[in-house]
Request: fold
Amino acid sequence: MMRTREGGMDLKPMDAEQLRESAHKMVGFIADYYQTIESFSVLGQVRPEYLHQLLPDSAPNHSEPLQDVLNGDVSQLSFHFIGTRIHVLNGQFLDEIADVDTKILPGVTHWQSPNYIAYFPFYGSFAGSLGQMLSAGINIVGFSWVTSPAATELETIVTDSLAKLLKLPRQGGGVMQGTASEFVLTVQLAARDKVLKKVGKSALGKLVVYSSDQTHACIQKASQIAGIHAENCRAPKTDSSTNFDLSPRAVSDAISQDTASGRIPLFLCATVGTTSSTGVDPFASLGKIAKLIFLLVLISTKLFSYISATPEGNGMWFHVDAAYAESAYICPEYRHYIDGVEEADSFDLDPHKWFPTNFDCAVLWVKEPIYLPH
Ligand SMILES: *Cc1c(COP(=O)(O)O)cnc(C)c1O
Reply:
């Protein structure tokens, strides 16, 4: 927007030539950022609410040139201090014309810094940034095939080729969304509705979800949203004696108790590479429990209604959460860690963690995609 001579607003948006010019500046800014990233303190050096003090509390009435938003073109200006603030001669303060440099970057935690070692890796890449630039520039909308056929088809091709790299079973298919947390919720809802359709909605209070105390917090959130009662979420404790892996025994014991008291095992989540300790749950055994021992327990406790609810003999939904470490299993020497993945009804992976893929990008494969739309 530019001010017109009369002082009103000219709402003319940026045109393609201005985009070309501004994009060069933006890329220059990003390249400078990476060339100096090691000079930043990894953790933002600010206090809570710092930004409120630096930005106006209502949206501006007119736009500023991009250069001023990024780092202010101060090369042609002369300065003097007024109090602690630097005043530039066009009537503004320096901190008013250099928003990203002076206000945003100090409050950024620099995940891409080589000095960053907290939480887990979150590797972006320049190729990933360029891909996002392209996608954002074209402004792709892909919620159904017809809204952008190329988006849907590319999604399928990419998830299929990723599946090939990981040597996943050639059954079902993959989709992409923002985060693994969304996927854990998605498959839990699919599992819930699959069972409730057979046993009736009133059984919601009987459904039980199993994971370990190392499972990512997204499982709890998903259970809460799915309406699973908090007292029906089992998370057996793990310890260092088993490298913090979930014990199949603890799971089968919990299943026995639950079925004996009339509850319905719904969902088991095993993790390949837990977020806190990179533990690898023995999911080949856990998968067997989900599919087989589970049925035996049911027969012994005469829960025939539920057995007839799963005529396919599917047992409970078995999800493998590989959000963190799955990328490693593309390497042939690590692939054996996911032997037995055929047992899983679904599993997720976060390319935005250990692939050179920018945030956000998560992939889910499901054995029977038919349950997702429901
Ligand atoms: C990070 C992580 C998640 C959640 O991933 P988001 O994509 O951030 O939602 C789930 N499970 C594991 C094992 C993780 O490491």
